[in-house]
Amino acid sequence: MTQIAFIGLGHMGLPMARNLLKAGYPLKVFDLVRSAVDTLAGEGAVAAESAADASDQAQVVISMLPASRHVEGLYLGEEGLLARLPAGTLVIECSTIAPESARKVHAAARERGVALLDAPVSGGTAGAAAGTLTFMVGGEAQALEKARPILTAMGRNIFHAGPDGAGQVAKVCNNQVLAVQMIATAEAMALGVANGLEPAVLAEIMRQSSGGNWTLEKYNPWPGVMESAPASKGYSGGFMAELMAKDLGLAQETASHSGNSTPMGALALQLYRLLLKQGKGKQDFSVVQQLFVE
Ligand code: NAD
């Protein structure tokens, strides 16, 4: 069976790698945080000492890192993985990064005869654990067909968004909508509660009415409304506010390149920056709720 290297075992990478193990793929794993490597080693993966060690002998390399600079650092330059991966290797890069950065890594991979896909995901940590992620893939259709069985072990919906970088463009558009919905939901929850409504009652009314959206379905920002949501666990786990701020920044950069006007995205970015200034960047992005309560 295909030998896979998995690099980046954070909130998302760890459960994604676990699903590959469950599907029977031989896996060699690496993260800068040793405890994450040890966790997966205890479940049947081989622990690597470095990204290079993980990818030795691998036919497929998967990475799930925080941002563009980590991805460029991993793959580019004389010390980067692309300088050592043999031609014919398939790289599935799942981090959310700038479309420009993704295109740079694509170009370097092509020069080396390495097939690369930008394949950012949606679905959150719950989707990663359940193996129900959505993959938004940019790159060549042929490479996607090679990757499909592996992606299917981690996700349910796999979209070919278009050529190099298209997966990242789709992802920043999606996350801009998500941030705007989260903020709108949080401000409405605070408004309703301040005016005498029970949070759970208001949440259910809006969920089943025309204000219904993904955050009301799966991820209510008001503590105690949804037991499984990060809001009910002190805003821990989930998707960090600093990563949402990063994605909103990417959306603004992308809009600047194309000359698009994105005022809702711009406002959302400003509100997330405020949260970061308040020291809440490591908390789940639904912590934006706290901007609207005393
Ligand atoms: P995270 O910070 O929990 O995990 C990133 C991991 O990468 C960390 O464990 C870190 O130690 C590791 N890492 C960083 N540089 C490394 C390197 N050079 N070599 C090896 N490991 C390295 O982040 P996350 O929440 O898992 O998110 C990962 C990516 O997925 C981000 O781009 C994020 O925007 C995106 N994303 C996250 C979610 C979510 O709900 N958390 C949802 C969709 C997409």
Description:
This protein folds into two domains: 4-163, NAD(P)-binding Rossmann-like Domain (Rossmann fold, 3-Layer(aba) Sandwich); 169-292, Orthogonal Bundle (N-(1-d-carboxylethyl)-l-norvaline Dehydrogenase, domain 2). Helix content is 47%, strand content 13%. The protein is built from twelve helices and nine strands. It has helices spanning 13-22, 34-41, 51-55, 68-75, 99-111, 124-130, 141-152, 166-194, 199-207, 214-218, 241-258, 263-277, and strands at residues 4-7, 27-30, 46-47, 60-63, 90-93, 115-118, 121-122, 133-138, 155-162. The strands form two sheets. A six-stranded parallel β-sheet has the order 3-2-1-4-5-6, sandwiched between helices. Strands 7-8-9 form a three-stranded mixed β-sheet. Helix 2 links the parallel strand 2 (27-30) and strand 3 (46-47). Helix 1 (13-22) runs parallel beside helix 6, helix 4 (68-75) runs parallel beside helix 5 (99-111) and helix 8 packs across helix 11. The chain is globular and about 65 Å long. The site of nicotinamide-adenine-dinucleotide has 29 residues, from helix 4, strand 7, helix 6 and helix 11.
